Amino acid sequence: MAQTRTRKGKGGKAGSPKGGPFDVHGVSPELALELLREMLKYRRFEEKAEEAYAIGKIGGFCHLHIGQEGAAAGCIKPLSDSDYVITAYRDHTQAMAKGVSPNAVMAELFGRAEGVSGGKGGSMHMFDKSVRFMGGHGIVGGQVPLATGIAFRIKYHDENDVVVCFMGDAAVNQGGFHEALNMAAIWELPAIFVVENNRYGMGTAFRRVSLTDMVEKSSPYGIPASRVNGQDVLATYAHFRDLVAEVRGGGGPRFVDVETYRFRGHSMSDPVSGTYRSKEEVERETHEEDPIAILRDHLFAGGHLDQKGLEEMDTEARETAQEAFELADASPMPGPEALYAHVWAEINPNGRLCFDGRGESPWR
Ligand SMILES: Cc1ncc(C[n+]2csc(CCOP(=O)(O)OP(=O)(O)O)c2C)c(N)n1
Ligand SMILES: [Mg+2]
């Protein structure tokens, strides 16, 4: 299923918050406003993280999701609480979309004890099984076989959940991707494999490393594929709403090429543009294909949002990010005992793998 790119608008005009009919992909105005609120929260959070990195509060690797918010909001919103999400290292906003608090994500970025992974994971390793967010994985493509494993578990226990597995475009050339898709296909597992196709793996354009189109990558395994414009969050939401229903209904795995664009460099150490992509391209994409501006303009045009409403939403998003920054900064560093936590695994009397004598498996 191919979706066309969204009509571009200039936006910014105030309108009445009580507007006329709004029927974009069958999404209600209330839900559209919620998606805008979510995306603004992710955008302001990432900008705050960028700022914190620049003043040395965050160290090590840090990959921002700015520009790709539509993928996190649109693909995760249709899921239920008990569904699973797993992703690569560009994971801050997916963690928040699945229910991790911005405070716990920011504290993790700061390497603090109150971080979602106790300060030991950092930017690439957000993990919270209580909301079924299964990471944050630094090895390109490493999460794909894990997703197949989670989907196998769901089917084995005859449960009704689905797993959404995000990956970057570079992951589809990893061996594990192909093994994992094949197994998911033959066992008809409830998995949706999602490529957040921002066109580049670090400085390498996808077209330079693949002679075939992204949507063809799952065809050797018989997995139905589709493509959606990730900068149009309403189209993305509607597409995933339908896919999740099909997969939950026993339809087997799906593969989706979500077209998006990375507005920043690959990580905090890279420039926004370089020899691999032009300034003009970055300018065009960031100005004309910003998922937040596109949805804002839809809502303005339908009269469901005005400038004042937008500013209120934005202030709220900035306050959330600021609070996360301040709490993270005030949070203690992990104590020396953290060195020994999550190191040893044991089998408990119920035959389950457990850590630190807590009698629970990280996977339940
Ligand atoms: C197996 C493996 N090889 C190489 C790397 C180094 N590396 C880190 S990110 C990256 C590019 C990945 O690009 P993509 O999958 O498109 O994700 P994006 O950064 O665009 O979100 C590479 C090659 C790695 N982490 N893992
Ligand atoms: Mg990429």
Provide keyphrases for this structure:
5-stranded parallel β-sheet; two-stranded antiparallel sheet; binds thiamine diphosphate; disordered N terminus; single chain; alpha/beta; binds magnesium ion; 11 helices; Rossmann fold; 2 domains; 364 residues
Description:
The protein is of the alpha/beta class. It has 2 domains: 29-333, Rossmann fold (3-Layer(aba) Sandwich), CATH 3.40.50.970; 337-364, no CATH class. The chain is 38% helix and 10% strand. A 5-stranded parallel β-sheet has the order 1-2-3-7-6, sandwiched between helices. β4 and β5 (204-205) form a beta hairpin. α2 (69-76) packs parallel to α8 and α4 crosses α11.
CATH topology of the largest domain: the name is: Rossmann fold
The SSE string, one letter per element, is HHEHHHEHEEEHEHEHHHEE
CATH architecture of the largest domain: 3-Layer(aba) Sandwich
**In what range is the share of β-strand residues?**
5-15%
Report the CATH superfamily of the largest domain. Answer: Thiamin diphosphate (ThDP)-binding fold, Pyr/PP domains
Question: Which class of secondary structure composition applies to the elements?
Answer: alpha/beta
Radius of gyration: 20 Å
Please, how many domains? 2
User: Which spans of ≥5 residues are poorly predicted at pLDDT below 50?
Assistant: 1-17
- Sheet with most strands: strand arrangement: 1-2-3-7-6
Task: Summarize the structure in short.
With 364 residues, this protein is of the alpha/beta class.
Layout of SSEs?
Blueprint (H helix, E strand, L loop, with lengths): L28 H26 L14 H8 L7 E3 L5 H6 L4 H8 L33 H14 L6 E6 L6 H12 L4 E7 L2 E2 L2 E2 H4 L15 E5 L3 H16 L5 E6 L19 H10 L2 H12 L4 H24 L14 E3 L5 E3 L9
Parallel strand pairs: 1-2, 2-3, 3-7, 6-7
Antiparallel strand pairs: 4-5, 8-9
Helix pairs in contact: 1-2, 1-10, 1-11, 2-8, 4-11, 5-6
The protein binds thiamine diphosphate (TPP) and magnesium ion (MG).
